[in-house]
Amino acid sequence: MGRSAKYYTYEVKQAAKREQATAYRNSEKGKQTKAAANRRRYKKATAVSPAALDDLPDDLVEWADRPVQASFTLHGTGPLLGLWSPPFRFLPPDQDPTARTAVNVWDGTTPPLWCAALGSFQCHAVLAAARDCRKLWMDSDTPLEELEIEVQTEIAARVDAWRALRETWFDESEDMDARLGLIWGAKIVCMLADEWDYRKEGVDVYKDVLRAGEMPWQLMIAQAMAGSGEKR
Prior knowledge:
Blueprint: H1 10-26, H2 28-46, H3 58-64, H4 100-106, H5 111-137, H6 144-167, H7 176-200, H8 203-212, H9 216-228
Helix pairs in contact: 1-2, 2-6, 3-7, 5-7, 6-7, 7-8
């Protein structure tokens, strides 16, 4: 349709993500977040089964409950607000080098359409991440402790990035992109923490929740589709 789409195999995407994650873990910030994750892991191991969401900031959980808009008629890549690459810091759409074309296409649209467009790109990223988690978390050869450290490290980094954005953004009537970054950033954290809680209960429990369509990302997608008037 005028532009050739660029597709990546699952293996290529996983290799790129591993390279990004390794670089982040080896950075000073990555070492700090991993140490924090290890401290939380120790605390969780010596406590009485605390829920992962108990450790999250109250205001982040509140932001995660806010509704989102998404248009599932959109396909392809677009600005992801910096929420899908370590260290997960907010990146305005016009500064995203991988989505300049998409930004230009939607430039000048009404706020609801712009929110729906950005929401669509986030939903596609959520689905891709959920698929990657299924492949990794259902692999019985991967120790649960190893997965725990990876998940807690990511959650710690995401919370840190979310707090950094929240502390520099005060007026809800301005900077719609930052507002969306706060909402989606909070949702991603809470969905990841919730989904990991299911996985810790065992692979069978994890599979049952998936089959029932009760995984956090499944419920979020269903709600977003209902809000947009679209059907599965």
